[in-house]
From TrEMBL:
Organism: Actinokineospora alba
Residues in the signal sequence: 1-25
Alphabetized UniProt keyword annotations: Signal
Protein name, entry field: Peptidase inhibitor family I36
């Protein structure tokens, strides 16, 4: 049981690093920003959009997990199809903003979606 927990934790970290791409240390996103807002943000070199569909086809996707099952589970249980993240700095670091981590403003991917990630891994293990 301990080993499985460690594996899930390590794989969650891999997801966050892979989804964040070049923004590995900056895995924050704006939870309440619209698709149009995300698209506008990527006109800046400081933001990028990473898709979960791309993650499941990447070398960073964990071995021993069915990628199609994972994607279907993730999306079917409310996971977002993509994350638009800042690439040049950690936004919100040291902030006293009341919207930080409350589900309606700035969020950390791992905090917001780590539990669903672990569930999808468990449900889709080969």
């Amino acid at each position: 049981m301990f080993g499985r927990g460690m594996a899930v934790g390590a794989t969650c970290a891999a997801l966050m690093l892979t989804l964040a791409g070049t923004a590995a240390a900056h895995e924050c996103y704006i939870a309440n920003r619209s698709e149009k807002g995300n698209a506008g943000a990527t006109h800046s070199a400081n933001w990028t959009t990473q898709t979960v569909a791309g993650f499941v086809q990447s070398p960073g996707f964990p071995p021993g997990v069915d990628p199609d099952c994972f994607l279907a589970y993730w999306l079917g249980h409310g996971g977002p199809a993509s994350f638009t993240v800042r690439t040049n700095k950690t936004i919100g670091s040291g902030s006293s903003n009341p919207n930080l981590g409350n589900g309606s403003g700035l969020e950390h991917i791992e905090t917001a979606w780590g539990a669903l990630f672990g569930e999808a891994l468990g449900a889709c293990a080969l």
